[in-house]
Write a structure and sequence with these properties.
Blueprint (H helix, E strand, L loop, with lengths): L1 E6 L2 H15 L5 E6 L1 H5 L3 E5 H4 L3 H7 L1 H18 L3 E5 L2 H13 L4 E4 L11 H8 L2 E3 L3 H11 L7
Parallel strand pairs: 1-2, 1-4, 2-3, 4-5, 5-6
Helix pairs in contact: 6-7
Length: 158
């Protein structure tokens, strides 16, 4: 199974690697995308590392706009080349929800692991989740409850 995983922060690298370890018990996995040392140790072909992707605050975003656009375009191109069986987006919602839209438009199945915190801010994110994500995997029970209430449907939640 070809999996394209975007983990943009160290915590996403840890959680993503734990998920991949469990998947590897069930099937053979070829792993592509972004992450840190944990995903790299599992054989992920990494195009960007979490060290590069950790951007803090509005100043950080503004000063890194050229890098962010280059990263998005590179990952978009790799997604189309690899044609993965599954895209797994781990947390990192500012970037990953935009990437979900692109992956959806090229026909990828998308799982969002560690759901965006729609309960805390950005309730509008639920519309993007509804439109572009096939499954949402929540790690905290109250997150799933909040997303279900906002979606008012259970068809996109695992």
């Amino acid at each position: 199974m070809k999996i394209f995983m975007i983990a943009g922060e160290e915590s996403g690298d840890i959680h993503g690697a734990n998920l991949i370890r469990q998947l590897q018990k069930l099937t053979s996995v070829s792993l592509y995308g972004t992450g840190g040392g944990n995903l790299k140790s599992l054989g992920q072909e990494q195009y960007f590392s979490t060290d590069q992707m950790t951007i803090i605050g509005l100043d950080g975003i503004i000063s890194n706009i050229p890098f962010i656009f280059r990263m998005f375009k590179t990952l978009e191109k790799k997604l189309e080349e690899i044609k993965p069986d599954l895209v797994i987006l781990v947390d990192y919602p500012g970037f990953n929800l935009r990437f979900a839209k692109k992956a959806h438009h090229v026909g990828c199945k998308i799982v969002y692991y560690i759901a965006p915190q729609v309960w805390a801010w950005h309730y509008s994110r639920v519309n993007k989740i509804r439109s572009y994500v096939d499954k949402v995997l929540c790690i905290l029970p109250f997150e799933m409850t909040q997303i279900l209430l906002l979606l008012k449907t259970q068809h996109t939640i695992l």
